[in-house]
Amino acid sequence: MNVKKRGPKPKKGAPTWMVTFSDLVTLILVFFILLFSMSQIDVSKFQAIAESFRTREILDFYPSVIENQHPGEAKDSDEDVSSSSEEGTLDHLLTEVQVYLQENGMEDVIVANRTERGVVLVLQEQILFETGDADLKEQSFPFLNKVATMLSEMHNLVKVEGHTDSRPITTYRYPSNWELSAARSASVIRYLVESQQLDSSRFAAVGYGDTRPVAVNDSPENLSKNRRVEIIISDPAYNEEIQEEQ
């Protein structure tokens, strides 16, 4: 009797080729997932991150991926707010001075206006000094007190300019218009500083003599216009522009 030999028993589990096939399918799935995820990247942010890593200056020169997290941007924002605040303070000061002049009938001898330099107060000689003298009149004290009080509430630099007409002067105290104009600006600053104990380092006194007239020195009226003291409460932005030019 012939006995048939049985072949080897089949191994349990999936065929070997299935392992390779499943690995291939898995790799293809991962590949497509990767493509899909890359298609959702913000290109600008990705480039910023890549460039930041390339130069190793992530925080200093490139925008943060998270909005409003860049230190430089916050600093610029703070400077804008500060500049806006200072601008508003100058405008408020100008309005307050103009109201004071109107209420006290002083608009003919004192003019307040706004220029690129800041708030400019132009005081005619007759409200401050006797002709040829640099000692302040008592009638000027109320207005100067008002200005000093307002300056105590801010930190702007203040420049005081003295001006004369073209008529020569030769006295023991003031050999020329240069000395007279400089002494007048110094007198105004000394009063402003002492009346409110202001920081003297904020102030600058300048004497221009008759070199910067506002009218031709050909009549008593024009001569009077040129004899003046100007108080300039400086705009910080204007000071920065001058420093950059220098």
UniProtKB/TrEMBL annotation:
It is a single-pass membrane protein. InterPro entries: Bact_OuterMem_StrucFunc, MotB-like_N_dom, OmpA-like, OmpA-like_sf. It is found in: Cell membrane. The keyword Transmembrane helix applies. PROSITE patterns: OMPA_2 (PS51123). Residues 116-237 form the OmpA-like domain. Keywords: Cell membrane, Cell projection, Cilium, Flagellum, Membrane, Transmembrane, Transmembrane helix. The keyword rRNA-binding does not apply. Belongs to the MotB family. This is Flagellar motor protein MotB. It comes from Cytobacillus gottheilii.
